[in-house]
Automatic annotation (TrEMBL):
Keyword tags: ATP-binding, Cell shape, Cell wall biogenesis/degradation, Cytoplasm, Ligase, Nucleotide-binding, Peptidoglycan synthesis
EC number from the UniProt entry: 6.3.2.4
InterPro entries the UniProt entry points to: ATP-grasp (IPR011761), ATP_grasp_subdomain_1 (IPR013815), D-Ala_lig_Van_CS (IPR000291), D_ala_D_ala (IPR005905), Dala_Dala_lig_C (IPR011095), Dala_Dala_lig_N (IPR011127), PreATP-grasp_dom_sf (IPR016185)
UniProt key word Cell wall biogenesis/degradation: yes
Protein's organism: Gluconobacter kondonii
Gene that encodes it: ddl
Name this protein carries in UniProt: D-alanine--D-alanine ligase
Lineage: Bacteria, Pseudomonadati, Pseudomonadota, Alphaproteobacteria, Acetobacterales
Pathway membership, UniProt: Cell wall biogenesis; peptidoglycan biosynthesis
Coiled-coil intervals: none
Function field: Cell wall formation.
Length: 304
């Protein structure tokens, strides 16, 4: 099968996408596919020309961040009539917009933290929520730009003044406890991973996610079976509520003291390096990394 792999992109997550893309390229070649790598830059006309020249049967979308997982490149691929991996335009756009995601998840009866979208001006004027609370860009991934404001913290005004992620921000109550995640392949929730950031990390930030030794993954998470079942159920329901396709990953915070499990976000383009969370969970379920990548392109052909 002829597969074009889109990697790189122009977002803050370009380095992550390059690593993901190279791993996917090798895996697809190992499973017998004819692979054409395409490094996506700011000139979308050049990308379109390259796609037309490659004439792939299917496109593996290994992009991350704005324009890669927010419905933009998905719209280009739809216009060109090319089947592609992961979610479509609507699910990609909604999942990338954390404010919209919260609304849909809550409407589906799924648990989200107390919070709202505020303007940067509102943030500069006063605390939008009782501390501790979390400030997040509305449309970034990989914990880019995330800040935690704790009681007695005087950084709020500075954060607002130096904010570089648009005119709005999402603020949510800080949920103490463990960082959990569960992946979905098609109509199957795979497993729950307990993510343990290194001791020097303030939380599961960008460096904890991608720097060597930044975090440790425990799969399956050591949890009461009822909590594991709840997380798997929530992940599948979130995948369905947003209309995701292919693979997705839902991230949680779990407070053991109160038995509270809260959805943080749904990732329509989970990291796909061989040691990323989705591939680790797939491997735990008996699906080697090359087979996971092969399933993604075949599933895309069957569903689009």
């Amino acid at each position: 099968m002829k597969v074009a792999v889109l990697l790189g992109g122009t977002s803050n997550e370009r380095p992550v996408s390059l690593v993901t893309g190279e791993a996917v390229i090798k895996a697809l070649r190992d499973t017998g596919h004819d692979v054409t790598p395409l490094d996506v830059g700011p000139d979308i006309a050049a990308t379109i020309a390259s796609l037309k020249s490659a004439a792939p049967d299917v496109v593996f979308n290994a992009l991350h961040g704005p324009r890669g997982e927010d419905g933009a490149i998905q719209g280009v691929l739809e216009w060109l009539g090319l089947p592609y991996t992961h979610s479509g335009i609507r699910a990609s756009a909604v999942a990338m917009d954390k404010g919209a995601t919260r609304i849909l998840l809550a409407a589906a009866g799924l648990p989200v933290a107390q919070g709202r979208v505020v303007t940067v001006e509102e943030l500069a004027e006063a605390d939008p929520l009782p501390a501790p609370y979390v400030i997040k860009p509305v449309a970034e991934g990989s914990s880019v730009g995330v800040e935690i404001v704790r009681a007695g913290d005087n950084r709020r005004a500075e954060i607002a003044q130096t904010w570089r992620f648009g005119k709005d921000a999402l603020v949510e109550s800080f949920i103490p406890g463990r960082e959990l995640t569960a992946s979905v392949m098609g109509d199957r929730a795979l497993a729950v991973t307990d993510i343990l950031p290194c001791e020097t990390a303030a939380f599961y930030d960008f460096e904890a996610k991608y720097k060597a030794g930044g975090s440790r993954h425990v799969v399956p998470a050591v949890l009461p079976q009822a909590v594991t079942d709840r997380a798997l159920d929530y992940a599948l329901r979130a995948h369905q509520a947003l209309g995701c396709q292919g693979a997705s990953r839902t991230d949680f915070r779990y407070d053991e003291k109160t038995d509270t499990l809260i959805i943080l976000e749904v990732n329509t383009q989970p990291g796909m390096t061989p040691t990323s969370l989705l591939p680790e969970q797939a491997a735990y379920c008996g699906i080697p990394y090359p087979d996971l990548c092969d399933w993604m392109v075949r599933e895309a052909l069957m569903t689009r």
